[in-house]
Amino acid sequence: MAKSWNFVFVLVWLSAILGAGIHLFSKGFLLTRIAQTDFSSCVRYEDIRCGTGGGDNDGDGGSCKVESILRDVNQSAGICMPRKGKVILLVIDALRYDFGEFDASLKDPLPYQNGLPVLEELRNRFPDRTRRLKFVADPPTTTLQRLKAMTTGSLPTFIDIGSNFASPEINEDNVVDQWKRHNLSTIFLGDSTWTELFPGRFKRKYDYPSFNIHDLDTVDSAIERHLPKEIGKSDWDVIVAHFLGVDHCGHRYGPLHGEMQRKLKEMNDVIRNVTEQMDDETTLVIIGDHGMTQTGDHGGESSDEVNALFFMYSKGTPLLSEEYDEYNKTIQQIDLHHLDALAWVVYGLLLLQIAVLAFSPLLIYVLPKRKEVMSVLQSDRNVAPEIFRQLRSNFNSRNPSAAADEIPVVCGLATAYSSVFIGVGIFLTILMSLLLGSHGTTGLILSLVITICYGIISSILQYENSTNLLSCLQPTMTTLLSWIILMQFGFYATAHQPTMSQIDWNAAFVGRTWHYDNNNVISAILVLLNTFSVTFVLSTLFPLIIFTPFCVYTMWPSLAQKIYQKSGGGGKPKAPKSSRKTDAGNVEYRSVTVNKPDDEEAGDEESTSGGRKAIDFDVTKGEINLYENEKLFVGTVFKTGCQLLLIQGVRIFCAMFACTMHCRHLMVWKIFAPRFIYEGIGSYIAFIGLNLGFLLLLRVHAAVNALITRINKAR
């Protein structure tokens, strides 16, 4: 048993090597943005001096400054112009461009159409003071990345998308810090992502958590309650209000639902109230950080996702006439910064299950001796011992000689290994079902049913073609490839796609609440388990590939007799008839001799399968064969785990090769990069599952060995 830990070391080492290769490739292939921590500086307009005398040389200091600025281009680029007004920035999350369009000819508009008529009214009344543009985002179109792009002017990366749960503070030059450096007071209301990105930058803040997508109104209602009061005050220069209701409505219902019409009408009322309350020195800017698909998702680079709305309204000062820029109807988001100068019970049961597996993993019942059974039955509540007492009585009555020897009766020994893994599989299935929800559980169950059917059929075929224990244990390459393919099938069957917009963020909140548990690590783990549920389950249960033939013929021993008769012997041992008994209740039992594990046997005549010849095994003894042939058994499981690791490694290598060959292809960031990201994360999940499965096997094997040793000592 001690040598088995060498297998663990090698398996972990192989997983680490493959994981390191994936990490190295991702560091080279996926772009990583390096933050520039230097801050730009400028000279205030009031501090500019004319000439060399340290003051204004002419009576008209204003004209002197203008001439001095125009004379030196380099100097003009570093001058901060004086404050001329105030800005109200309304960020409406997921405000797609066509949400802000108005078409009076539509007789039966969709819920998202003509939802903001106030914008069209402002354009018609004040054409020289309004401007509507298409606000083009860069993928990935997630809120955190869009806020970084708009405030810093930098491009997001696919790596940054993992920070959507943990919003790190921005330490590079950005427009919010420039406001603070120039003594401009900023008030914030809404999505707490802003306060996580810019802590300590706001004079007053009213921030609220943003990831409860089922809540459409809490954040928006709070903003509507505080915004009029803040506009009425005079101690601010910039107000930023980030509304979440439209985005959450899209995630929960989609843009075609009636709730979207309600939320857009609510935003229309907010905009109307702001325009009526703000003074003539204030400019209103309305933007969407990204759009949404027709299903309400976002994160990718489709037209609906990247095209957001930009609308500006200056109440007192006319804007630059459109005649100077009549063909430019779009603006990049990275240019914006220039304009602004279940319940906890689920997890408790999970911890309990882990504790049970660690201390007592076996699902086996050992019938106590006759006097011990009588003491148990005094309570008249435990039915199982009474059943086994009757079974023992029947057995001893048919075998008088065995009664004196007090042969122990053990229920479940023939399926000692597979029963544990099946129990773990059932528990993992329940957990994954909670994370997947109703839309993904059907695919999960379908994947597992197909896996079970395939396992039974392949085990029967494998036993028919085997001539010894080694060939019966070792799964074929077809079986291993099918196991990997079933993982891939399960990914799609559980309603997932290798695109960023298809990530199911709902799983992050199963059994948790923001007020008592806002751990981002747990959120990320739950989302990963939701996305790669079938991969994790099948990789953890991979030893079942080896157990299945013995489990099947233990449950249906008549299959072995039929195969033996069909093959005419064929090298397959036949179970002795005298060893098999059936009582009146159709309960089948048999007397077997459990040999010591092969590493305790001695003798030069022993073959590779233990103390008996490799061909001499009875498949109807079930998994007792595995215990008796420990070296062959553990070695085969280790070999199978390594083969699955290598096959998964070939898959991720193909994804890497495709990215390398098509690195300059137009669709590399649309198809190949997301595919590589999903394959890479799926490989990590599979590596972890394979190692956990092998460790669980060793724990079960140690428990079986301890049980048999204890029974032998008690006799």
Automatic annotation (TrEMBL):
Domain of life: Eukaryota
Principal location listed in the UniProt entry: endoplasmic reticulum
GO CC terms, sorted: endoplasmic reticulum membrane
One GO BP: GPI anchor biosynthetic process
UniProt membrane topology term: Multi-pass membrane protein
Recorded metabolic or biological pathway in which this protein acts: Glycolipid biosynthesis; glycosylphosphatidylinositol-anchor biosynthesis
CDD domains: GPI_EPT_3 (cd16023)
Subcellular localization, as worded in the UniProt entry: Endoplasmic reticulum membrane
Pfam families named in the record: Phosphodiest
GO-annotated molecular function: transferase activity
Transmembrane portions of the chain: 341-367, 407-436, 442-463, 475-495, 652-672, 684-708
Annotated keywords: Endoplasmic reticulum, Glycoprotein, GPI-anchor biosynthesis, Membrane, Transferase, Transmembrane, Transmembrane helix
Family classification: Belongs to the PIGG/PIGN/PIGO family. PIGO subfamily.
Protein name as catalogued: GPI ethanolamine phosphate transferase 3
Source species: Culex pipiens pipiens (Northern house mosquito)
Lineage of producing organism: Eukaryota, Metazoa, Ecdysozoa, Arthropoda, Hexapoda
